[in-house]
Amino acid sequence: MANHHVLDSHGADISGEDTWQALATAQLPDGIALSNLTLLELLHKQEKVNVLVPLADLLNADGKLANGLLEQVLDILKQHSSRLGVWITSNTDADDLSDVKDFLLTQDLIVIHVPSFVDGRGFSFAQTLRQLGYEGDIRMAGAFGRDQIAYLLRAGATSFVLNEHDAKSDISQAFTALASSYDGRDASALPMFSKT
Amino acid sequence: MYQYNYADQTLVEERVAQFRDQTERFLAGELPEEQFLPLRLQNGLYIQRYAPMLRIAVPYGLLATYQLRKLAEITRKYDKGYGHFTTRTNMQLNWPKLEEVPDILAELASVQMHSIQTSGNCIRNTTTDPYAGIHKEEIADPRPYCEIIRQWSTFHPEFAFLPRKFKIAVIGTAKDRAATQVHDIGLHLKKNDAGELGFEVIVGGGLGRTPVIGKTINTFLPRQHLLSYLDAILRVYNLHGRRDNKFKARIKILVDSMGGPAFAKLVDAEWEANIKDGPLTLTDANFDKASSYFTEPDYLSFDALQVQSDLQQQLEADKDFANWYQQNTVAHKVAGYRAVVISLKAGLVDGRYVPSGDITESQMDALADLADEYSFGELRGTYQQNLVFADVQTNRLYELWQQLAALHLARPNINTLTDMIVCPGWDFCSLANATTHNIAEQIEKQFNDLDYLYDLGEIRLNMSGCMNACAHHHTGDIGILGVDKKGEYWYQISLGGNSSNDAKLGKILGKAVPTDAVATTIQKIIDVYLEQRVSNDNDVEGFGDLVDRIGIAPFKEKVYG
């Protein structure tokens, strides 16, 4: 786990101040956060920590926030964490995001896990979250590549989990590539219609 | 045509810098092959049988003469002195060197050209009608909308890694000359009862190994919603399209699996929930601005009677010119002008077959000079792999024809059997299963009598070297598909396809025929057509109509019986 780094939207390594930990679950992919902890460890911690949980595990079969036992678990998680965030995967049903919009808007961090370089669903998840009005940190994790960072920034991502090799190489260009390109949200930003 | 402003130019230059960095990192072993592959494809670069292939974008087919001269120069400097025009109006170079591609892109950028998104699983070059802006029956000029779509789709951050490639075509006349119904999205400009402009939106057409005709999901989308609605379609596709199987990843499979109405509902839900009436909404001022790049050139006015009588004399005096005028020129909305189709189907020149869509560097330079002299410095590419001079004075056709003829660019075969759409096939393409050029040459030799071809009338023959169907064999009156059988090339023939308004897929005639029997088989098919077509004084039954009427059984009988 120690071989991952978190970079902010300017490409600065913020691993030192990043305190998010992913709750260890059966489907937890590598590199969602810099470290993981189990539910038991969380419950026994004296201090409150920042905890990432899988959105999929909080939903019922209809894609709504589950009630009953799961709802109580979520309450316990909230009580034992200083900040709560969720992670989603490319297989998350996009309709679910709209269904739990109010819940998502209150999250401090949403991590989008990319299963492979060519799987572009993460771009649409980031853009959708921004269009739903989410203003917090959107963090990309998984198998995206440095050459996709410029697009991901425009789609709404604000931080990135990278492996040791990528984080340590000079990747400043990745954050400034195609600096003039269009962000996909505003017709007036097209070259033909922009004032500049 | 559209002129790059500072922002466009900067963007293209930034792209060249980015790809130069990526290529260098790849060659140094720092960028993994599986990541470089989609990145180079989005810059138009394939690795082919003998060399890389670079596909250069010609947005909606429009080329300025200074751009054509640059293409000529590039083919001289970096390639083997020729280029190849495709059905999607791009130009392919067959022999560039990988390490020189960034230099080629830099040269292209100097004339507002690029290879951006000409390949890969992203939004490709938008195509349109080659007679946009000059056709008498046009509802509205599609080019401003094509340019808006070009700018929206270029580096759209959300849609660069779609499940599969994505192609959009736009037309502004009722008649479809851009094969819109076999595109991922086809847009037909329409006017509603209030006189407002909008689009009929057709989604999910495509050829390849699962050919499908598109389905209308919106009969009238007011034009201000163009981009937000396209965004909604692309997002639904990006999130729901299949990624587990490359052959089932096109939007046509998604639309077919749920049906047009259900797909339309998903798009509407996405559109209305997140995007409609938002900042992607276009304004009348936007449309005025976009249209300002496609104003009419300074047409002259003529004494119509004089022009007509002069033309009549020339036509009567020279049968070759009359043939060319009849086949290769098209009516224009402005009196005294015609559009001229430059045939890139020279056939056999000095005994050597010239592949469909191929053009040499000296032809490019000469054509650029002629377009400056005769057609306001612009050319257009067509779906049939030909070029068009859109605005030629009728009273100068004769002199233009003489010069084109000297360049082997005036073959009067447009819309005849030898105006074939042909992909490069096994000779160049690593996807291909069979060769195509040798078969096209065979057909050229079999059907070398011009009067015979004219008697056959319009017949579209399309030939692809594999089931990826780059030459749209499914929509030819006669389609030929190359297949590999134990290392030998065989050819499967289909009949009755159409890419225009009543788009339909051809029916397979029967088992494939061997290489040496293709032209003779086509001859038998043509014989059936000639025997069975019905004519009256005004009308001759077309090939497709005959296939519709009698089915393929009589053709089958003749070929295999």
Describe the overall structure.
The complex is a heterodimer of chains A (196) and B (561). Chain A is an alpha/beta fold and 196 residues long. Helices cover 30% and strands 22% of the residues of chain A. An 8-stranded mixed sheet of chain A has the order 1-8-7-6-5-4-2-3. In chain A, strand 6 (109-114), helix 5 (121-132) and strand 7 (137-142) form a beta-alpha-beta unit. In chain A, helix 5 packs parallel to helix 6. The longest helix of chain A has 12 residues, at 69-80. The model of chain A has no long low-confidence stretch (mean pLDDT 92). In chain B, helix 1 runs antiparallel to helix 2 (33-41). By secondary structure, chain B is an alpha+beta fold. The longest helix of chain B has 22 residues, at 6-27. The mean pLDDT of chain B is 96. In chain B, 37% of the residues lie in helices and 18% in strands. In chain B, strands 18, 19, 20, 21, 22 and 23 form a 6-stranded mixed sheet that branches. In chain B, strands 1-2-5-4-15 form a 5-stranded antiparallel sheet. The radius of gyration of chain B is 23 Å and the shape is globular. At the A-B interface, helix 5 and helix 6 of A face helix 1, helix 2, helix 5, helix 6 and helix 8 of B.
Q: What structural class results from the helix and strand content of chain A?
A: alpha/beta
Oligomer: heterodimer
On the 0-100 scale, what is the average pLDDT of chain A? 92
The greatest interface here is:
A-B, 43 and 54 residues
Strand elements of chain A, count: 8
Give the rounded overall mean pLDDT of chain B: 96
Helix content of chain A: 25-40%
Please specify the SSE layout and strand pairing.
The complex is a heterodimer of chains A (196) and B (561).
Chain A: E1 4-8, E2 20-23, E3 35-37, H1 39-44, E4 49-54, H2 69-80, E5 81-89, H3 94-99, H4 101-105, E6 109-114, H5 121-132, E7 137-142, H6 149-155, E8 159-163, H7 164-168, H8 172-176
Parallel strand pairs in A: 2-3, 2-4, 4-5, 5-6, 6-7, 7-8
Antiparallel strand pairs in A: 1-8
Chain B: H1 6-27, H2 33-41, E1 45-47, E2 52-56, E3 62-64, H3 65-78, E4 82-85, E5 91-93, H4 101-109, E6 127-128, H5 143-153, E7 168-171, E8 185-191, E9 197-203, E10 215-222, H6 226-240, H7 251-258, H8 260-275, H9 284-291, H10 304-317, H11 319-328, E11 329-331, E12 337-342, E13 347-349, E14 352-354, E15 358-360, H12 361-374, E16 378-381, E17 387-393, H13 397-406, E18 421-422, H14 437-446, H15 450-456, E19 461-464, E20 478-485, E21 488-495, E22 507-508, E23 513-514, H16 518-532, H17 543-550, H18 553-560
Parallel strand pairs in B: 6-7, 7-8, 18-19, 19-20
Antiparallel strand pairs in B: 1-2, 2-5, 3-16, 4-5, 4-15, 8-9, 9-10, 11-12, 12-17, 13-14, 16-17, 20-21, 21-22, 21-23
Helix pairs in contact in B: 1-2, 1-4, 3-12, 6-8, 7-8, 10-11, 14-16, 16-18
